Amino acid sequence: MTPIVLRGGFGAADARRYAHVPFEIPAGVRSMHVAYDYSERIASDPQLLGGNTLDIGIFDPRGVGPSSQGFRGWSGSLADKHDNMLALANALFMP
User: Fold this and answer.
1) How many domains in the chain?
2) What is the DSSP letter of 11?
3) Considering the entire predicted model, what is its pTM?
4) Which residue blocks in 1-95 are alpha helix, DSSP H?
5) What are residue 57's DSSP bridge partners?
6) Strand 34-35 vs strand 81-82: parallel, antiparallel, or unpaired?
């Protein structure tokens, strides 16, 4: 299967907000490896300034808000890779 590679960057105007990056998961996919990297890492604490935090959330087509029906779960910034994000979504996140 062909990998889906998403690349991008954020500037000062993107500070203290969430960015949704939609992509399609082809039918039949049973696992998904997610890896990412970013600079100036700091803890996920809204009181901290001067660095970056990256949280990974999963949403389905029903919506992208934390309280929407499409919200499947949040990994937070605990790891910089997830070897099977779909299994994580099914096991730890909302059904």
Assistant:
1) 1
2) -
3) 0.61
4) 85-92
5) 74
6) antiparallel
What pairing do the DSSP bridges indicate for beta strands 71-76 and 34-35?
Answer: unpaired
The DSSP output letter for 31 is: -
Quick check: helix, strand or coil at residue 93? coil
CA atoms within 13 A on the CB side of 33: 6
21-63 tens-digit pLDDT: 888 877 777 777 777 778 888 887 778 888 888 877 778 888 8
Q: How far apart are CA 20 and CA 15, in angstroms?
A: 14
Residue 75 falls inside a structural domain: yes
Per DSSP bridges, beta strands 81-82 and 71-76 are unpaired
- Rg over alpha carbons for the chain, rounded to the nearest Å, is 14
- Whether 86 is covered by a domain: the verdict is yes
